[in-house]
Description:
By secondary structure, the protein is mainly β. 1% of the residues lie in helices and 40% in strands. The strands form 14 sheets. Strands 7, 8, 9, 10 and 11 form a five-stranded antiparallel beta sheet that branches. Strands 12, 13, 14, 15 and 16 form a five-stranded antiparallel beta sheet that branches. Strands 51-55-54-52-53 form a five-stranded mixed beta sheet, with no helix packed on it. The longest helix has 6 residues, at 292-297. The relative contact order is 0.07.
Amino acid sequence: xxxxxxxxxxxxxxxxxxxxxxxxxxxxxxxxxxxxxxxxxxxxxxxxxxxxxxxxxxxxxxxxxxxxxxxxxxxxxxxxxxxxxxxxxxxxxxxxxxxxxxxxxxxxxxxxxxxxxxxxxxxxxxxxxxxxxxxxxxxxxxxxxxxxxxxxxxxxxxxxxxxxxxxxxxxxxxxxxxxxxxxxxxxxxxxxxxxxxxxxxxxxxxxxxxxxxxxxxxxxxxxxxxxxxxxxxxxxxxxxxxxxxxxxxxxxxxxxxxxxxxxxxxxxxxxxxxxxxxxxxxxxxxxxxxxxxxxxxxxxxxxxxxxxxxxxxxxxxxxxxxxxxxxxxxxxxxxxxxxxxxxxxxxxxxxxxxxxxxxxxxxxxxxxxxxxxxxxxxxxxxxxxxxxxxxxxxxxxxxxxxxxxxxxxxxxxxxxxxxxxxxxxxxxxxxxxxxxxxxxxxxxxxxxxxxxxxxxxxxxxxxxxxxxxxxxxxxxxxxxxxxxxxxxxxxxxxxxxxxxxxxxxxxxxxxxxxxxxxxxxxxxxxxxxxxxxxxxxxxxxxxxxxxxxxxxxxxxxxxxxxxxxxxxxxxxxxxxxxxxxxxxxxxxxxxxxxxxxxxxxxxxxxxxxxxxxxxxxxxxxxxxxxxxxxxxxxxxxxxxxxxxxxxxxxxxxxxxxxxxxxxxxxxxxxxxxxxxxxxxxxxxxxxxxxxxxxxxxxxxxxxxxxxxxxxxxxxxxxxxxxxxxxxxxxxxxxxxxxxxxxxxxxxxxxxx
Length: 752
């Protein structure tokens, strides 16, 4: 309802829990496109909102971040993107957007994300108070009015005054309004269950008519101030925020001049001063005497008449300054101070592309967001355990019982923040008796006291120049965190250094520090004493050892020795060892070579070493491994497998010689050699006169290189395949027509 030619408006913007550091009121939206952001210091102007209201409006922000959630002019609800909520239009607020307290926003007690948007319209015609429910989880987190919970009728009144304060039991709020004409305050309790159907009525003080001015409750929730246009008086009431009852009115003359019509009213943060705007001026009163006559004598004009300037709504901001609805905004910087010391500042904040018409947002205070509980830190024996309450809103006193009877008189304490040293390791039930203005609450918590953790790290040995391990920020097998000095292990010098760990404060640990010894040693060389040479084909004299003679474990590459070929073998110490790899050369010695010829000589069958080597020794054995002598040849009379051992003094080669026939009756007539050079003399092995049924000729390795049935004189030094055989001693096996068998040797000579 427009009351003054200036067309100013008052917007209600509720600050939930500002006395407890919450940020529900850190965004203001009001007037025509006007806004203020109190998340900055100093506050900054905000533009771009679509709001355009003469007077009433409200906004709410996130209580932790101060970011805007939504705002309203009593007819429309806009979200944080400045878009109307899908179901947020056509609220039963003032259709003319000219109601002093058109809309307030109340968080539903103990119910996150749910808000009541309460609207009231002009005095004439008056449709009463209605509310709608906003759920911030709807519309993708931007919020919307819950379907079926819009424009719910609450109470029939004929006034434009409305405000909200927390109830003294810390369980809800009082929604306060006033009848007109009449002298009755109406207080409706708002709890988690909703709005009470039975308001508290207080008929006290002057008759209020249809004045569009404001009323306010101080920050201490003990006083209500209201002004009267026609009598130019102000009234002050006691308010019981436990019962919702108003009482003990006192009044005084706020102005003796007609035309100085009241509009805005506001308390200083400490509740000692009251400021009243008279459209043109602002007057300060000291209300500490609680005596109307004395209060009137303290009146001080904070600012006088300035041609063309109107000053109407007054609103305490989150920075404890009082903001004045003028264009641009003015501010009272130190409202707790008397007289000129209050620091009135004209044109303190300009909001571009906006117009301030009626006023500024009102406050709403916070209650606890959840049921109360006990917080505690520290659970270590022989150390203080600190206790406090999760929520201190509205708390007047706290009595503590720690459930630790052996501690005697120290088992109890009083205060919002206390500490206790428990006498033993056990589970304790701690009880807090919390007294609010209107009620008492008993809260318990289970506290487990434990003995301190022991911390240590085993000494470390590292190799000079090695990459050091990181020192642990949390000691292994514990939850203890802390810092090291020095912070990094150095491996640049040989020796032992100490590194000190100090536990972070507040942990259950004993001792709180310890010293780690780190030893840096130079790399040692693994040593080995096993024989590094052996004869080819023999057994390795010793397996490659997994630990060196000087006690260094490691691995070999290759892992096993090749007994046929000399090679290098690398021993690599294990990673935990401060030692260098070492290479061992293993030599495989060759066996002495030996060739045995056999055949008849002078009527005897002989085994003879072909081309005996210098420095070699020989030993013959029969088929039963009996020694037969050490000469370079022996005569044998029995068939079987004979063995000769040849030794060079280091390695011994053992060769088996098979003998299949020792009959030498005709052996003297078989030639001992041929020389196939084409001269017609001994070019072939001529056995024409021996009646040979079959002949086989072997090389020194026992492989048949020539064979023929019914042989006469065909072998000319070539193989059965026609390949020319090299000069060498060859062995033959002959079967005669009478089935006698004969073996012997023959030398093929291609040099003549």
